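Lab notebook, design round three. We kept the backbone fixed and only want residue identities now. Task for the bench partner: fill in a sequence for the structure below.
Input structure tokens:
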């Protein structure tokens, strides 16, 4: 059994140690706090990656995500192809008065359209103003920190490898097309040069002939006044 009052003595000792320490006051808002990289502040939307699959809205336990969209017909990419329909995002809003920052919407997004941002200064005087639309969510994307660097000994992610292969294939196709175009241009220039040389030659019609004013009657011969009678 402990000594009576030992718990109180320990508590007072902690209080005395704290009283003797120098206090460190955070000069907020003049000095912004240094937040951890994985701080859950707000959710940023990368609109270009959103395909309106509705997974985030269906999985949200608070039902605080509102999405509206419409369908558009996309013409075929090649002649004879089929038209396709795609979903176009009209509205993406999150009610942060209901959001409990669980991060399920970010985890289930298959196309990396949602990200955590450490931004936390979004207080409003009216609770109804805590529903932020896609424009505000897009602005918060600029505050999303860069992902941590990979281990230099780690394997390259499959997505990056596939993207690099596609880019290399496209660059090779463009280089081949450019080389073929340059070769065709050189052949056309060579053919044009050969035609110019053929047309610049001296033709028989350009030289003196019987039709340029010198005729047999103008030449000096035995009939031009010095006849046989002389």
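Proposed sequence:
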């Amino acid at each position: 059994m402990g000594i009576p009052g030992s718990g109180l003595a320990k508590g007072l000792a902690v209080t005395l140690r704290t009283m003797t320490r120098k206090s460190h006051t955070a000069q907020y808002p003049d000095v912004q706090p240094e937040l951890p990289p994985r701080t859950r502040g707000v959710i940023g939307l990368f609109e270009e990656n959103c395909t309106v699959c509705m997974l985030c809205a269906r999985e949200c336990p608070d039902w605080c995500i509102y999405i509206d969209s419409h369908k558009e017909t996309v013409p075929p990419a090649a002649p004879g192809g089929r038209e396709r329909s795609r979903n176009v995002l009209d509205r993406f809003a999150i009610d942060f008065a209901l959001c409990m920052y669980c991060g399920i919407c970010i985890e289930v997004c298959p196309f990396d359209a949602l990200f955590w941002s450490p931004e936390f200064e979004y207080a409003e005087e009216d609770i109804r103003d805590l529903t932020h639309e896609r424009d505000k969510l897009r602005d918060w994307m600029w505050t999303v920190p860069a992902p941590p660097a990979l281990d230099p000994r780690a394997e390259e992610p499959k997505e990056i490898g596939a993207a690099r292969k596609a880019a290399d294939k496209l660059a090779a196709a463009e280089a081949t097309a450019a080389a073929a175009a340059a070769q065709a241009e050189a052949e056309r220039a060579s053919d044009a040069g050969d035609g110019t040389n053929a047309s610049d030659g001296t033709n028989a019609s350009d030289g003196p002939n019987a039709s340029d004013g010198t005729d047999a009657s103008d030449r000096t011969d035995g009939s031009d006044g010095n006849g046989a009678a002389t």
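Keep this in mind before ordering anything: The longest helix spans residues 158-199.
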